[in-house]
């Protein structure tokens, strides 16, 4: 069964992960977000409980 032979597929997987970790990942990590998250607190809104007519 050729599916069980890991020899060619292991090499392809290792080359893929090396490509990802050496080339693509640094480019993605160097990306600067144009909309950074802010630390300002969210405003709290006062809510009134709903009065159900059947209770």
From TrEMBL:
Offer an example of a GO molecular function term for this protein: proton transmembrane transporter activity
> Which subcellular locations apply to this protein?
Mitochondrion membrane
| Predominant location category | mitochondrion
An annotated GO cellular component of this protein is: proton-transporting ATP synthase complex
Which keywords does UniProt give here?
ATP synthesis, CF(0), Hydrogen ion transport, Ion transport, Membrane, Mitochondrion, Transmembrane, Transmembrane helix, Transport
The membrane-spanning stretches of this chain are 6-24
Q: Which residues form a coiled coil?
A: none
- Topology of the protein relative to the lipid bilayer: Single-pass membrane protein
Q: Does the keyword Membrane apply?
A: yes
Against Pfam families, the record matches this protein to:
ATP-synt_8
GO BP term (any one):
proton motive force-driven ATP synthesis
- UniProt similarity note: Belongs to the ATPase protein 8 family.
Q: What is this protein identified as?
A: ATP synthase complex subunit 8
Task: Say which species the protein is native to.
Answer: Chaetorhynchus papuensis (pygmy drongo)
Gene name of the record = ATP8
């Amino acid at each position: 069964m050729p599916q069980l032979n890991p020899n060619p597929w292991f090499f392809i997987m290792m080359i893929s992960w090396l490509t990802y970790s050496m080339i693509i990942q640094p480019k993605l990590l160097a990306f600067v977000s144009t909309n950074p998250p802010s630390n300002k607190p969210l405003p709290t809104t006062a809510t009134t409980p709903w009065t159900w007519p059947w209770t």
